[in-house]
Write a structure and sequence with these properties.
Blueprint lengths: L2 H12 L3 H20 L4 E3 L3 E8 L2 E4 L6 E4 L2 E8 L1 H9 L2
Antiparallel strand pairs: 1-2, 2-5, 3-4
Helix pairs in contact: 1-2
Length: 93
């Protein structure tokens, strides 16, 4: 599902204009992004949680040349599925 599909489904389900649904969805994602930038955890009960995982720098290897390279530290978003969603997915609902 793409973001535009989510917006369309929200507009249809709530009987609101597409533009209003678009504002709601965009606000939702912007607030999650702001939380990430502030290193905050985002939890949506029954769905899951999002947090930023930090990975230290390390020495890696270039797969083409075999040369040892420095891989810089990085921060990446991480999603952990909630218990209720995991159970629904496993039941095939």
């Amino acid at each position: 599902m793409k973001r535009s599909d989510l917006i369309r489904k929200l507009a249809e389900a709530e009987g609101i204009p597409f533009v209003k649904a678009q504002q709601i969805v965009m606000t939702f994602f912007e607030e999650i992004e702001k939380a990430f930038l502030n290193s905050e955890r985002v939890e949506i009960r029954g769905f899951g949680s999002f947090k930023i995982k930090e990975y230290p720098e390390y020495k890696g290897r270039n797969p083409k040349t075999g040369e040892i390279i420095e891989v810089k530290r990085k921060r990446l978003p991480f999603f952990k599925v909630g218990k209720e969603l995991r159970e629904r997915v496993n039941k095939g609902e």
